[in-house]
Write a structure and sequence with these properties.
alpha/beta; 6 helices; Rossmann fold; binds S-adenosylmethionine
């Protein structure tokens, strides 16, 4: 098969406005890692900028109430639906504050039959407290628009048991992937940057070869870089100019390597 070279498009735009510029029924996989409504501005951690390599920036992450936040998510998703293919997969990355609200909203918007998995990204670092169990995971809600015909290529991960040492096993809905530490070579300084390993696994599993992937809150461009490395087309939006510059630079660097 003659597959086209992957195209990546990153635009400074609001999610809801950006999707209005896309062709109807053109996206195979939608992945969004929106702000989590933490109530604080997300900034590059102090001291985390390494000698001219990392950027320092921030983005707003506060809504007047949870109801306002969920209404915003719902409105943006509703505006996105026309650009998704009828068999598209939808991955929404949230956390323990918002997951239960998002799940009910998605059941209502996309239909309970479209629910496929509640994926746990177990990341190891941070989240400790002496007053509760350490919070060490995010939640990725996977829905499909076509319960009978959606794409899935079961990923394999390294087996951990002694019996299966050196072999692989089918991944479960708990993905053990470390978050980026200060020394990680892919770290850019962008606040809440996700690891390429996570996005590569999700895209490989949930998007067909040559797919078009949409990330409407692309931040440092991790989803787009993962798509490029897999030969997939990608579209990203972000309202933060620093994010758009960074995502474009990462994509350009990937094309050269
Ligand atoms: C959690 S971060 C995404 C991080 C990204 N996954 C990465 O690996 O770098 C959320 C992003 O949403 C962006 N954002 C916030 N409101 C937005 C909106 N209305 N439309 C598009 N992007 C928005 C922020 O600027 C921020 O870059």
């Amino acid at each position: 098969m003659n597959r086209q070279a992957p195209r990546s498009q990153v635009t400074l735009a609001d999610w809801g406005d950006g999707v209005g510029t896309l062709a109807p029924a053109s996206v195979d996989l939608f992945y969004a890692d929106p702000p989590f409504n933490t109530g604080v501005r997300q900034s590059t951690p102090a001291g985390a900028v390494r000698a001219g390599r990392d950027i320092a920036t921030s983005y707003a992450d506060a809504w007047p109430s949870m109801a306002h936040y969920v209404a915003w998510l719902r409105e943006c998703l509703a505006r996105t639906l026309p650009v998704l293919k009828p068999c598209a997969n939808v991955l929404l990355h949230v956390d323990q504050r918002t997951c239960h609200h998002a799940r009910l909203m998605l059941d209502d918007l996309l239909g309970e039959a479209g629910f496929v998995n509640h994926i746990i990204w177990s990341y190891g670092l941070g989240g400790s407290s002496s007053r509760r169990f350490a919070r060490k995971h995010d939640d990725i809600l996977w829905y499909t628009l076509d319960p009978a015909g959606y794409f899935f290529a079961p990923p394999r991960v390294e087996a951990t048991s002694r019996r299966m040492r050196g072999q692989t096993k089918k991944a479960t809905d708990v993905l053990d992937i470390p978050s980026l530490n200060n020394m990680a070579s892919e770290r850019t300084g962008y606040p809440t940057q996700k690891p390429l390993e996570l996005l590569t696994l999700l895209l490989r599993a949930c998007a067909p070869p040559g797919a078009t992937v949409l990330d409407p809150c692309c931040g440092s461009g991790t989803t787009l870089v993962a798509a490029q490395s897999l030969g997939m087309h990608s579209i990203g939006f972000d309202t933060n100019p620093a994010a758009v510059d960074l995502a474009r630079a990462r994509l350009a660097a990937g094309q050269q390597s």
